[in-house]
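User: Teach me something about this protein's shape.
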Amino acid sequence: MEKLKKNETESSHISFALRQGQCPPVQINHTNIPQTESVKYLGIHFDKVLTWKDHVLTKRKQLEHKTREIKWLIDRHSPLSLENKIIIYKTVLIPVWTYGIELWRCASNCNIEIIQRYQSKILRILTNAPWYVKNHTLHSDLRVRIPYVREVYQERIALHRTTIASHPNPLMAPLLHLPTTRRLKRRWTLDGTH
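Assistant: First, the predicted structure itself:
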């Protein structure tokens, strides 16, 4: 059996804790591994106190980049119908900010609002709505209702819980129960209530 190859120069480690200070040095093959404040794993950015700020800000930058690429299709000069613009929004932009959203229950409200402000901005662009039109109107009065960011993640959390509950692997069942200790003062990831 072949051993797992590790690249010490491209590795980093992170300690999830509220306590200030440095973790004792971590070494692989007698090489010190640097400690970081945030780390990216499978496209999700984790910071050391799990505020999700780094992840949300990264997603916000990605959304700005994607919006610039497709702006000619969705702005007020576009000949596309509103229905087609909404389809573009749902297929190109929504997957960017919903990736890993099941874990956002730990995110603070101000970080979730970063994505919500983006969503309100893009709906205003899609509909060519003037400044005095309320965000609530943009969400509810479209022919196809666009749910708020908070509604999307609550729906995804419920779906995630259902998936775990029906999973054949018995090791998944304990994930549905609240932990007995909480070192980090954050809401539980699978808790669907606010």
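Now, about its shape. The chain has two domains: 8-39, 44-176. The helical segments are 53-74, 82-98, 109-127, 135-140, 149-165. If you'd like, I can walk through any region in more detail.
User: That's plenty for now, thanks!
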